[in-house]
Amino acid sequence: MTEFLFREIILRIKKVMRHLPVVVISGMRQTGKSTLLQNEPSIAGSHRYFTLDDFAVLAAARTNPESLFDAPVIIDEVQRCPELIVAIKKAVDENRSNGFFILSGSANISLLGRVSETLAGRASYLALYPMTRRERMALVTQRPFIARFMDDQTLPAGESLPVTDADILAGGLPPACLGDSEGLREWFLGYVQTYVERDVRGLSQIADLVSFANFVRLAALRSGQVLSIASLARDAKLNAATAGRYLGLLEASFIVWRLPPFFNNRSSRLVKSPKLYFTDSGLAAHLADVTEFPQGRDSKMRG
Q: Which residues have C-beta within 8 Å of that of residue 280, sequence separation ≥ 6?
Protein backbone atom coordinates (compact mmCIF):
# COMPACT_ATOMS: atom_id res chain seq x y z
CA MET A 1 0.00 0.00 0.00
CA THR A 2 1.30 3.47 -0.91
CA GLU A 3 2.34 5.60 2.06
CA PHE A 4 -0.13 8.37 2.90
CA LEU A 5 1.24 11.72 1.74
CA PHE A 6 0.39 15.00 3.43
CA ARG A 7 -1.92 17.22 1.39
CA GLU A 8 -1.66 21.00 1.66
CA ILE A 9 -5.45 21.38 1.94
CA ILE A 10 -5.25 19.80 5.42
CA LEU A 11 -4.01 23.11 6.85
CA ARG A 12 -7.05 24.90 5.41
CA ILE A 13 -9.43 22.23 6.67
CA LYS A 14 -8.12 22.54 10.21
CA LYS A 15 -8.34 26.34 10.07
CA VAL A 16 -11.95 26.27 8.86
CA MET A 17 -12.88 23.69 11.50
CA ARG A 18 -12.04 26.24 14.19
CA HIS A 19 -14.59 28.73 12.86
CA LEU A 20 -17.56 26.88 11.29
CA PRO A 21 -19.56 23.77 12.21
CA VAL A 22 -19.55 22.22 8.71
CA VAL A 23 -16.72 21.71 6.22
CA VAL A 24 -17.71 20.53 2.73
CA ILE A 25 -14.91 18.98 0.66
CA SER A 26 -15.58 18.28 -3.00
CA GLY A 27 -13.51 17.69 -6.10
CA MET A 28 -13.13 15.46 -9.12
CA ARG A 29 -13.09 11.71 -8.62
CA GLN A 30 -9.87 9.99 -7.53
CA THR A 31 -8.18 13.09 -6.10
CA GLY A 32 -7.86 11.35 -2.72
CA LYS A 33 -10.71 12.77 -0.65
CA SER A 34 -11.61 9.51 1.13
CA THR A 35 -7.95 8.58 1.64
CA LEU A 36 -7.24 11.95 3.22
CA LEU A 37 -10.22 11.81 5.58
CA GLN A 38 -9.43 8.28 6.73
CA ASN A 39 -5.67 8.68 7.15
CA GLU A 40 -4.91 12.24 8.30
CA PRO A 41 -4.45 11.83 12.11
CA SER A 42 -5.57 15.35 13.01
CA ILE A 43 -8.94 14.67 11.33
CA ALA A 44 -9.51 10.91 11.50
CA GLY A 45 -8.39 10.82 15.13
CA SER A 46 -11.16 13.14 16.30
CA HIS A 47 -14.04 12.17 13.97
CA ARG A 48 -16.00 9.00 13.28
CA TYR A 49 -15.93 8.07 9.60
CA PHE A 50 -19.01 6.97 7.65
CA THR A 51 -19.39 6.46 3.93
CA LEU A 52 -22.76 6.36 2.21
CA ASP A 53 -21.34 3.74 -0.14
CA ASP A 54 -22.11 1.42 2.79
CA PHE A 55 -25.77 0.45 2.34
CA ALA A 56 -26.36 0.08 6.09
CA VAL A 57 -25.06 3.59 6.70
CA LEU A 58 -27.09 4.91 3.76
CA ALA A 59 -30.24 3.35 5.20
CA ALA A 60 -29.52 4.91 8.61
CA ALA A 61 -28.93 8.30 6.98
CA ARG A 62 -32.36 8.11 5.34
CA THR A 63 -34.38 6.75 8.25
CA ASN A 64 -32.58 7.91 11.41
CA PRO A 65 -29.85 10.44 10.52
CA GLU A 66 -29.47 11.64 14.12
CA SER A 67 -27.96 8.25 14.99
CA LEU A 68 -24.85 9.28 13.06
CA PHE A 69 -24.41 12.52 14.99
CA ASP A 70 -23.49 11.33 18.48
CA ALA A 71 -19.87 12.47 17.99
CA PRO A 72 -17.93 14.63 15.50
CA VAL A 73 -18.43 12.91 12.19
CA ILE A 74 -17.09 12.58 8.65
CA ILE A 75 -19.73 11.63 6.08
CA ASP A 76 -18.25 10.58 2.75
CA GLU A 77 -20.12 10.32 -0.57
CA VAL A 78 -22.78 12.56 0.95
CA GLN A 79 -24.26 13.24 -2.51
CA ARG A 80 -25.97 9.85 -2.25
CA CYS A 81 -28.39 11.19 0.37
CA PRO A 82 -29.18 14.89 -0.23
CA GLU A 83 -31.99 14.81 2.35
CA LEU A 84 -29.32 14.28 5.02
CA ILE A 85 -28.39 17.96 4.62
CA VAL A 86 -31.66 19.03 6.28
CA ALA A 87 -30.92 16.85 9.31
CA ILE A 88 -27.42 18.33 9.54
CA LYS A 89 -28.86 21.86 9.43
CA LYS A 90 -31.22 20.98 12.31
CA ALA A 91 -28.36 19.50 14.34
CA VAL A 92 -26.17 22.57 13.76
CA ASP A 93 -28.94 24.97 14.76
CA GLU A 94 -29.56 23.05 17.96
CA ASN A 95 -25.89 22.76 18.91
CA ARG A 96 -23.45 24.90 16.94
CA SER A 97 -20.16 23.10 17.55
CA ASN A 98 -17.37 24.20 15.23
CA GLY A 99 -15.74 21.47 13.16
CA PHE A 100 -18.38 18.88 14.07
CA PHE A 101 -19.34 17.86 10.52
CA ILE A 102 -17.01 17.11 7.61
CA LEU A 103 -18.91 16.27 4.43
CA SER A 104 -17.25 14.94 1.32
CA GLY A 105 -18.31 13.85 -2.13
CA SER A 106 -17.61 14.13 -5.81
CA ALA A 107 -18.91 17.22 -7.54
CA ASN A 108 -22.65 17.29 -8.06
CA ILE A 109 -24.48 20.43 -9.11
CA SER A 110 -27.71 19.59 -7.30
CA LEU A 111 -25.85 18.62 -4.12
CA LEU A 112 -23.68 21.73 -4.00
CA GLY A 113 -26.69 23.93 -4.72
CA ARG A 114 -28.72 22.35 -1.95
CA VAL A 115 -25.83 22.47 0.54
CA SER A 116 -25.15 26.14 -0.13
CA GLU A 117 -28.84 26.98 0.31
CA THR A 118 -29.51 24.84 3.39
CA LEU A 119 -26.23 25.40 5.21
CA ALA A 120 -25.72 29.08 4.37
CA GLY A 121 -23.64 30.70 7.11
CA ARG A 122 -22.91 27.30 8.62
CA ALA A 123 -20.48 25.73 6.15
CA SER A 124 -17.28 26.39 4.28
CA TYR A 125 -16.59 24.81 0.89
CA LEU A 126 -13.16 23.51 -0.10
CA ALA A 127 -12.02 21.69 -3.23
CA LEU A 128 -9.37 18.98 -3.29
CA TYR A 129 -7.43 19.11 -6.55
CA PRO A 130 -4.95 16.58 -7.99
CA MET A 131 -1.65 16.27 -6.16
CA THR A 132 1.01 18.92 -6.69
CA ARG A 133 4.67 18.01 -7.20
CA ARG A 134 5.35 19.33 -3.68
CA GLU A 135 2.85 16.82 -2.31
CA ARG A 136 4.10 13.92 -4.41
CA MET A 137 7.70 14.58 -3.35
CA ALA A 138 6.79 15.19 0.31
CA LEU A 139 8.12 18.77 0.24
CA VAL A 140 5.06 20.54 1.65
CA THR A 141 6.86 21.46 4.87
CA GLN A 142 9.22 23.68 2.87
CA ARG A 143 8.26 27.19 1.80
CA PRO A 144 7.24 27.12 -1.89
CA PHE A 145 10.02 27.93 -4.32
CA ILE A 146 7.95 30.58 -6.10
CA ALA A 147 7.26 32.40 -2.80
CA ARG A 148 10.98 32.53 -2.01
CA PHE A 149 11.78 33.66 -5.53
CA MET A 150 9.25 36.51 -5.32
CA ASP A 151 10.92 37.67 -2.10
CA ASP A 152 14.54 37.92 -3.25
CA GLN A 153 14.42 37.36 -7.08
CA THR A 154 17.25 34.82 -6.93
CA LEU A 155 17.36 31.20 -8.00
CA PRO A 156 18.42 28.98 -5.10
CA ALA A 157 21.43 26.86 -5.96
CA GLY A 158 21.16 23.09 -5.94
CA GLU A 159 17.36 23.00 -5.81
CA SER A 160 16.58 22.42 -9.47
CA LEU A 161 13.79 19.84 -9.82
CA PRO A 162 12.87 19.99 -13.50
CA VAL A 163 9.43 18.85 -14.57
CA THR A 164 9.88 15.76 -16.72
CA ASP A 165 7.73 14.52 -19.58
CA ALA A 166 6.70 11.62 -17.35
CA ASP A 167 5.47 14.10 -14.71
CA ILE A 168 3.25 15.81 -17.27
CA LEU A 169 1.82 12.59 -18.67
CA ALA A 170 1.11 11.12 -15.22
CA GLY A 171 -0.56 14.26 -13.84
CA GLY A 172 -1.57 14.44 -10.20
CA LEU A 173 -4.42 11.97 -9.64
CA PRO A 174 -2.93 9.63 -6.99
CA PRO A 175 -3.70 6.28 -8.67
CA ALA A 176 -2.03 7.56 -11.85
CA CYS A 177 0.95 9.54 -10.55
CA LEU A 178 1.79 7.15 -7.69
CA GLY A 179 1.01 3.92 -9.53
CA ASP A 180 2.65 1.88 -12.26
CA SER A 181 3.42 4.02 -15.30
CA GLU A 182 3.05 0.97 -17.55
CA GLY A 183 -0.69 0.90 -16.96
CA LEU A 184 -1.23 4.65 -17.25
CA ARG A 185 -3.10 4.61 -20.57
CA GLU A 186 -5.50 1.89 -19.43
CA TRP A 187 -6.17 3.70 -16.14
CA PHE A 188 -7.05 6.98 -17.87
CA LEU A 189 -9.18 5.14 -20.42
CA GLY A 190 -11.24 3.63 -17.60
CA TYR A 191 -11.40 6.96 -15.80
CA VAL A 192 -12.77 8.79 -18.83
CA GLN A 193 -15.31 6.07 -19.58
CA THR A 194 -16.54 6.11 -15.99
CA TYR A 195 -16.78 9.89 -15.94
CA VAL A 196 -18.65 10.18 -19.24
CA GLU A 197 -20.96 7.23 -18.70
CA ARG A 198 -21.72 7.69 -14.98
CA ASP A 199 -20.92 11.08 -13.52
CA VAL A 200 -22.14 13.30 -16.34
CA ARG A 201 -25.53 11.61 -16.32
CA GLY A 202 -25.76 12.49 -12.64
CA LEU A 203 -24.86 16.09 -13.34
CA SER A 204 -27.22 16.83 -16.20
CA GLN A 205 -29.38 15.21 -18.84
CA ILE A 206 -27.12 14.83 -21.86
CA ALA A 207 -28.85 13.12 -24.75
CA ASP A 208 -25.79 12.65 -26.95
CA LEU A 209 -22.86 11.31 -24.94
CA VAL A 210 -20.81 10.86 -28.11
CA SER A 211 -20.94 14.59 -28.94
CA PHE A 212 -20.09 15.41 -25.32
CA ALA A 213 -17.07 13.07 -25.37
CA ASN A 214 -15.92 14.69 -28.62
CA PHE A 215 -16.34 18.14 -27.05
CA VAL A 216 -14.20 17.13 -24.05
CA ARG A 217 -11.37 15.96 -26.32
CA LEU A 218 -11.48 19.13 -28.38
CA ALA A 219 -11.33 21.14 -25.16
CA ALA A 220 -8.25 19.17 -24.09
CA LEU A 221 -6.51 20.16 -27.34
CA ARG A 222 -7.08 23.80 -26.35
CA SER A 223 -5.69 23.46 -22.82
CA GLY A 224 -3.51 26.47 -22.00
CA GLN A 225 -4.96 28.57 -24.83
CA VAL A 226 -7.27 31.59 -24.83
CA LEU A 227 -10.82 30.29 -24.68
CA SER A 228 -13.18 31.01 -27.55
CA ILE A 229 -16.45 29.19 -26.92
CA ALA A 230 -17.69 30.08 -30.41
CA SER A 231 -14.64 28.47 -32.03
CA LEU A 232 -14.84 25.42 -29.77
CA ALA A 233 -18.56 25.03 -30.51
CA ARG A 234 -17.96 25.32 -34.26
CA ASP A 235 -15.30 22.58 -34.22
CA ALA A 236 -17.51 20.34 -32.07
CA LYS A 237 -20.48 20.97 -34.39
CA LEU A 238 -22.56 22.33 -31.51
CA ASN A 239 -24.33 25.61 -30.97
CA ALA A 240 -22.67 28.09 -28.62
CA ALA A 241 -25.31 27.61 -25.90
CA THR A 242 -24.75 23.85 -25.76
CA ALA A 243 -20.97 24.26 -25.79
CA GLY A 244 -21.25 26.75 -22.92
CA ARG A 245 -23.40 24.30 -20.95
CA TYR A 246 -20.95 21.45 -21.54
CA LEU A 247 -18.08 23.67 -20.41
CA GLY A 248 -20.05 24.58 -17.30
CA LEU A 249 -20.49 20.88 -16.50
CA LEU A 250 -16.74 20.31 -16.83
CA GLU A 251 -16.11 23.23 -14.48
CA ALA A 252 -18.71 22.07 -11.95
CA SER A 253 -17.02 18.68 -11.82
CA PHE A 254 -13.55 20.26 -11.45
CA ILE A 255 -12.28 18.80 -14.74
CA VAL A 256 -11.42 22.25 -16.19
CA TRP A 257 -11.03 25.77 -14.89
CA ARG A 258 -10.78 29.18 -16.52
CA LEU A 259 -7.84 31.40 -15.71
CA PRO A 260 -8.89 35.06 -16.00
CA PRO A 261 -6.38 37.44 -17.59
CA PHE A 262 -4.41 39.89 -15.49
CA PHE A 263 -4.88 43.59 -16.25
CA ASN A 264 -4.34 46.63 -14.07
CA ASN A 265 -7.87 47.61 -15.07
CA ARG A 266 -10.12 45.35 -12.98
CA SER A 267 -13.00 45.63 -15.44
CA SER A 268 -10.79 44.22 -18.19
CA ARG A 269 -10.08 41.16 -16.06
CA LEU A 270 -13.80 40.39 -16.07
CA VAL A 271 -14.61 41.00 -19.73
CA LYS A 272 -11.49 39.76 -21.56
CA SER A 273 -11.31 36.10 -22.58
CA PRO A 274 -9.80 33.69 -20.04
CA LYS A 275 -7.48 30.78 -20.76
CA LEU A 276 -8.80 27.25 -20.47
CA TYR A 277 -6.90 24.72 -18.37
CA PHE A 278 -7.54 21.12 -17.44
CA THR A 279 -7.13 20.52 -13.74
CA ASP A 280 -4.96 17.48 -14.36
CA SER A 281 -2.23 17.43 -17.00
CA GLY A 282 -2.30 13.65 -17.28
CA LEU A 283 -6.01 13.65 -18.06
CA ALA A 284 -5.54 16.46 -20.60
CA ALA A 285 -2.70 14.54 -22.29
CA HIS A 286 -4.77 11.36 -22.47
CA LEU A 287 -7.79 13.16 -23.95
CA ALA A 288 -5.59 14.96 -26.47
CA ASP A 289 -3.90 11.63 -27.34
CA VAL A 290 -0.48 12.97 -26.38
CA THR A 291 1.85 10.13 -25.37
CA GLU A 292 5.26 11.77 -25.83
CA PHE A 293 6.99 15.09 -26.46
CA PRO A 294 9.56 14.61 -29.25
CA GLN A 295 12.99 15.99 -28.43
CA GLY A 296 13.96 19.16 -30.24
CA ARG A 297 10.37 20.27 -30.79
CA ASP A 298 8.73 22.85 -28.56
CA SER A 299 5.27 21.31 -28.21
CA LYS A 300 2.71 23.80 -26.90
CA MET A 301 0.93 20.85 -25.31
CA ARG A 302 3.92 20.46 -22.97
CA GLY A 303 2.83 23.60 -21.10
A: 28, 130, 171, 172, 173
pLDDT tops 60 at residue 110: no
C-alpha span between 19 and 69 (Å, rounded):
19
Q: How many residues does the chain have?
A: 303
The one-letter amino acid code at 118 reads T
Could you report the per-residue pLDDT of 2-39, keeping only the tens digit for each? 678 889 999 999 999 999 999 999 888 899 999 999 99
pTM (two decimals): 0.85
CB–CB of 251/258 below 8 Å?
yes
Please give the pLDDT value at position 299: 61
Does the pLDDT at position 301 exceed 80? no
Nearest to 209 by CA among 229, 195, 223: 195
> Bridge-partner residues for 103, per DSSP?
24, 75
Q: Name the least confident of 69-78, 97-106, 154-163, 266-275.
A: 154-163
CB atoms < 10 A from the CB of 122, how many? 16
Binning the chain into helix, strand and coil, the percentages to the nearest 5 are 50, 10, 40
> What is the three-class DSSP state of 44?
helix
Backbone angle region of 249, left / alpha / beta, with phi > 0 → left and psi within -120 to 50 → alpha = alpha
For the CA atoms of 72, 202, 286, 228, what is the dihedral angle to 10 degrees? -110
